[in-house]
Amino acid sequence: KAGVTQTPRYLIKTRGQQVTLSCSPISGHRSVSWYQQTPGQGLQFLFEYFSETQRNKGNFPGRFSGRQFSNSRSEMNVSTLELGDSALYLCASSLRTLDTGELFFGEGSRLTVL
Amino acid sequence: GESVGLHLPTLSVQEGDNSIINCAYSNSASDYFIWYKQESGKGPQFIIDIRSNMDKRQGQRVTVLLNKTVKHLSLQIAATQPGDSAVYFCAENKDTGNQFYFGTGTSLTVIP
User: Fold this and answer.
1) Alpha-carbon distance B64 to B48, whole Å?
2) Which chain A residue has the Cα nearest residue B4?
3) pLDDT at A40 (0 to 100)
4) Which positions ≥6 away from B3 have C-beta within 8 Å?
């Protein structure tokens, strides 16, 4: 069974640009969450999608957005990039629906903003 | 501006010894906890979970203990191996859905 797949794995952008990251969850998983990981702040929750609807949102500015498609694949977008957005962006999928459950993480997309 | 990184607690153990990694969680209403292992360049990997109606759960070579009175979680790894070297995170869930709050992590180094 394939794991969570994130693309691209690495990317470099400049300030002011925007970026789109993609996540394909494990087959059958309908919940997809996004986390930002930095040395300064650790792992922080961005948002969670379930059945194409945003179910939870963390404390990030509106420049961070996401969506989920009918096949459960998810994308997140960061507009007007800032240096502080440099981070490892992790996607996690989960089988559980109304209840909480184990998160399966992808390898992450490492974004560097210059 | 200057970037200040998190001060990661570190733990060094000899191969074959037992390891204990501790975590203090923040919300007494949290009802589900997970321990994750993250190796360099990889995403976090599930180790073991526990719900708040339990105080102990065992897996293969790992045991998680939950003390709700003092909001403390621990991960015990038996017969630690070099492959156990990684950063370990505890995560708590205190809302509906899959929004987890992660601890700062502990870096475990196993000395052969």
Assistant:
1) 7
2) A40
3) 81
4) A39, A40
Q: Is residue B3 very low, low, confident or very high in pLDDT (cuts 50, 70, 90)? A: very low
B44 pLDDT band, cuts 50/70/90, is very high
d(CA A8, CA A33) in angstroms, rounded, equals 17
- pLDDT tens profile A43-65: 999 999 998 999 889 999 999 99
Dihedral sign from CA coordinates of A67, A69, A71, A73: negative
* CA–CA gap between residue A54 and residue A33 (Å, rounded): 9
Q: Cα–Cα distance between B100 and B98 in angstroms, integer? A: 6
- Token pair, residue A22, equals 């993609």
Q: Is B99 helix (H, G, I), strand (E, B) or coil?
A: coil
The two tokens of residue B71 are: 């909001």
Contacts of B32 in chain A (CB under 8 A): 100
Q: Which element (helix H / strand E) includes B24?
A: strand B19-24
In this predicted structure, the answer to whether residue B5 has a pLDDT above a threshold of 70 is no
Residues of chain B with C-beta less than 8 angstroms from the C-beta of A106: 43
